[in-house]
């Protein structure tokens, strides 16, 4: 199988990362780093650190010159980072040594790599945000249409009390809305420029280092951290955490959908995909399974990334390399999950009649809790619970609806109203409608 499912011709449609996938290619990384070099040169010229005509030449060249990643393989392997080889090749390609000498003036490799990464993460977050908004839109339509559609609520995999399909959908969508609400602050506080020099002191940039970093941030549309963050990987961890929680929220949809299409339940339809190679009767829950798989992979990678957040001294090669291996997989996992979830939620169709049969098929015991609270009006609560448990055992043993036993033993209770499922949905319809109202503001 492919080393990465996200850029595999074979698995690309199963784990589609869309345009986010293009942001995590060698070409995209080089392009982002060159943009940083160009913006750095322009900012340095404004502060008189390098000649203005050299800055113009560098900026123009960063937009025009295309570097071959393959040409940087050997120097990257030798140096451990791509920037020395990239700068050397770029200077050569400029064919203007009088200007090329000012490329990468006073910066260090980590400044260029981290800042270029932030440019790509900014784009990635925007693309994932758009796909999540699509997911929310589809879920809101389902929640609105089925806010009062009864279905069994399940705990520990067993029928518990009634809920509504709209409320279930709202439980899927609310974490996504919360994630979307977090994005503005995340962009403001985590998409940072880096310009701190070799050991975080910016000594080669002189007395104007602080102003230069501020202007570089403004030129790139990033935030000035007002300090060196070479070894403080909090911004990376927070973006990674957001992406991880995206896949976990969407993985929840996958888990529930997988359960609800199982033989014997079949309360959802997923559309026409998921054919078996040998069993004509099957429709496999492919997209839900993808969402679950992505959530598992991403949470595992996030754990590794967390362990790599402790850097020794002023830079740690092993910790940094670990970050490079994990972070793209985490971001691509979130991107892929958001795209898959959008397609899945568009095609989800609740099987209303089957939901009703599942609710009614419990011999009324799905409403045992409601009955126990009604009975508690006539006797102490512990006694009521014991009486209801006894009737539930009798209902199971005799295959008799609990309503009939209640009518027999407690004729004064309004059993018909008590066992009307639509009257026992609690706050489920309101939960669904509240989600719909909030989703409309996205």
What does this structure look like?
The chain contains 18 helices and four strands. It has about 450 residues and is mainly alpha-helical. It folds into three domains: about 15-105, Orthogonal Bundle (Fumarase C, Chain B, domain 1), CATH 1.10.275.10; about 110-190 and about 230-360 and about 425-440, Fumarase C, Chain A, domain 2; about 365-420, Ribonucleotide Reductase Protein R1, domain 1. It has a two-stranded antiparallel sheet. It has a two-stranded antiparallel sheet with strand order 3-4. Strand 1 (about 150-155) and strand 2 (about 160-165) form a beta hairpin. Helix 2 (about 25-45) crosses helix 9 (about 210-220) and helix 7 packs across helix 18 (about 430-440).
Give keywords.
442 residues; mainly alpha; Fumarase C, Chain B, domain 1; Fumarase C, Chain A, domain 2; Ribonucleotide Reductase Protein R1, domain 1; two-stranded antiparallel ribbon; two-stranded antiparallel sheet
